[in-house]
Amino acid sequence: MRTPIRPLTATPLRALRNLGILAHVDAGKTTLTERILFATGAVHKRGEVHDGTTVTDFDAQERDRGITIFAAAVSCDWDGHHINLIDTPGHVDFADEVERSLRVLDGAVAVFDAVAGVEPQSESVWRQADRHGVPRIAFVNKMDRAGADLDTAVASIKDRLGAVPLVVQLPVGREDGFTGVIDLVRMRTLLWDGDTRTEGPVLEEWSDDAAGRRRLLEETVAELHPDALEEFCGASELSEETLVRALRELTLGGDAVVVLCGSAYRNRGIEPLLDAVLAYLPSPLDMPPVRGTADGREQERAPDPAAPFAALAFKVNSTARGRLTHLRIYSGTLRKGAWVRDAASGRTERVGRILRVQADRHEEKEEAMAGDIVAVVGLKTARPGATLCAPDAPVLLEPPSVADPVVSVAVEARLAGDTGRLAAALARLAEEDPSLVVRSDPETGQTVLSGLGELHLEVAVEKIRRDLDVEVNVGRPQVSYRETVLRGVSGVVYRHVKQDGGAGQFAHIVLDVEPMEEGGFAFRSTVVGGRVPQEYARAVEAGCRDALAEGPLGGHPVTGLRVTLTDGAIHSKDSSEMAFRTAGRFGLREALRASEMGLLEPVAEITVTVPEDGVGGVLGDLAARRGQVTASTAGAGSAVITATVPLAELFGYASRLRGRTQGRGTFTTRPAPLAPVPTAVAQALLAR
């Protein structure tokens, strides 16, 4: 049974931190979050992942599977500051949860395993944070594990992430003997015995190493920071004040990453990490004003409680309290009972209640101000990515991007009477998770659920069964193939002429089609002399984009081509944008049928950790799955194999790997670029 959560205090903007915990699966994110809540007094008893008693992994599936599936927000106070913290998933199938969280966060703590260092999903979430410009500090966790090595983990951060690591702590003791850290900024030793922490000067046996590491830290900071360089050149050292200021500015600018270490499970290193969060990660006032558009013009909204209200919805879920819409407030003040406008739809709704979110528990508030993260009850139509603003001061903020689904399954209600309930359940799932797509197959009439991976779909289906009480039958997963142009054609002429009384339709176009190696779609017009006016050329482009939905090989979406409109003709009365759009659609379809086309398939990079005696069987199985091994390293009794494997060949791989390694093998995956399907395989697929 979990302990009650302590009420939180109101905090001004300068003392507010909005941060996420990012990492590869099983690096210790949830345990770290739990220890942070315990250290700050937000909970009075530590929860454990293996016991299913953590605050943030409150969903039944998370407890059963022992992994984080849904991003969960919690709050706590530390040293006069208020921290809004989001524990994000570490599995690649739930990367969209991370994406939506990063869109609204100001900073992050990246957690790395002290033995494994940077793992595949560590790199993926790091790149996501790069795209959003989120400042980070790093926490090397599990320093008490056999084989833990801070220097090796830091080297992987530098080599694989391209970051400049600034190590501000040294471990005291190794593996089971890890008892504390040496703070290189304040030159002190922090030791833990159970929940008791003691502080003192640097131990004599560590003094030379600590002095050398402090010197290296100062030199690296001086190379990166002009003010620090000036002081270092004059005094041959940096003061604590200058070093802290430089570390903060380098972190905020994304020029370097501060590295700390500890063991979350043993509750060692948590308090210094919290101090580092306050010292180096930004408050909302340190972030640039959020940008949006209104009436076609760009606007900025500063984090000012007195400014017009603007917020971004990043998560929607249904609870016993009702439909919760999670918001990051960027400007203004939101009060209970206020009316807000969905900037995209123009719909205005009333906020019934404002809640401070504590995972699956909530504390009611009368108001929330700029910089805060809260949930509201009462909004019926707002979806993740929606901008909510004051009705008299509209602004549209950029929503988080949504990944394209790569795996699909057919679903149907087991009982005919549950068909309507299944449709409602699927609609609710798609509303809460934008990376889930529900559609009806026009050929078979089946309902198809698409997502980011096999586990993603398993969780969604189990949620229908368990939470929504609908029994479903599920078909075998199918991947989303793409078609591409291998060799194009030139001078394809298409005339669209239609005359059925009244104004007719006329469009004459000439198209060239060529491959585009970088993927995607590009369109240009080289028509001169006004033979095809610009507005009609744009209509041709729109028609070509319509034609990309279904390719000539198997009806799959088309990518990787460049279309050039080289010539055309118009009619003084019968030409229109609609006519040229129709010509573009059918003209490109005809050009694709004349081109040499190929099939592309989604590919995953898979990293398999396997005992030495199972390497041969695993390599053989990967080869049978059309896998290409790219790297293989051997360690103490185990091997790590990295390979690229077609996603279609990975279904059921978890069970096969367990069988071949007596349950000792593990693997992780992450998306890789689309790859051509071998000719024989493509022929077999298209013959089905």
Describe the protein.
With 688 residues, the protein is α+β, with helices and mostly antiparallel strands. The chain folds into 5 domains: 13-280, 3-Layer(aba) Sandwich (Rossmann fold); 291-397, Beta Barrel (Elongation Factor Tu (Ef-tu), domain 3); 407-475, 2-Layer Sandwich (Alpha-Beta Plaits), CATH 3.30.70; 482-594, 2-Layer Sandwich (Ribosomal Protein S5, domain 2); 599-687, 2-Layer Sandwich (Alpha-Beta Plaits), CATH 3.30.70. The strands form 8 sheets. It has an 8-stranded antiparallel beta sheet, with no helix packed on it. Helix 3 runs parallel beside helix 4 (120-132) and helix 12 packs across helix 13. The model is unreliable at 1-10 (pLDDT under 50).
Provide the fold topology.
Elements: E1 16-23, H1 29-39, H2 60-65, E2 72-78, E3 81-87, H3 95-102, E4 107-113, H4 120-132, E5 136-141, H5 150-161, E6 165-167, E7 169-172, E8 180-183, E9 188-193, E10 196-200, H6 204-224, H7 226-235, H8 240-252, E11 257-261, H9 270-280, E12 290-294, E13 297-301, E14 310-319, E15 322-331, E16 333-335, E17 339-342, E18 348-350, E19 353-358, E20 361-365, E21 367-369, E22 373-377, E23 387-389, E24 396-397, E25 407-413, H10 419-432, E26 437-440, E27 447-451, H11 454-466, E28 472-474, E29 478-479, E30 482-487, E31 489-498, E32 505-515, E33 521-525, H12 534-547, E34 558-559, E35 561-569, H13 577-594, E36 596-611, H14 615-624, E37 628-634, E38 638-646, H15 653-660, E39 666-676, H16 679-687
Parallel strand pairs: 1-3, 1-4, 4-5, 5-11, 6-11, 30-34, 33-35
Antiparallel strand pairs: 2-3, 7-8, 8-9, 9-10, 12-13, 12-24, 14-15, 14-23, 15-22, 16-21, 17-18, 17-23, 19-20, 19-22, 25-27, 25-28, 25-29, 26-27, 30-36, 31-32, 32-35, 36-38, 36-39, 37-38
Helix pairs in contact: 3-4, 6-7, 12-13
GO molecular function, one term: GTPase activity
InterPro entries: EFG_II (IPR041095), EFG_III (IPR009022), EFG_III/V (IPR035647), EFG_IV (IPR047872), EFG_V (IPR035649), EFG_V-like (IPR000640), EFTu-like_2 (IPR004161), G_TR_CS (IPR031157)
Protein name: Elongation factor G
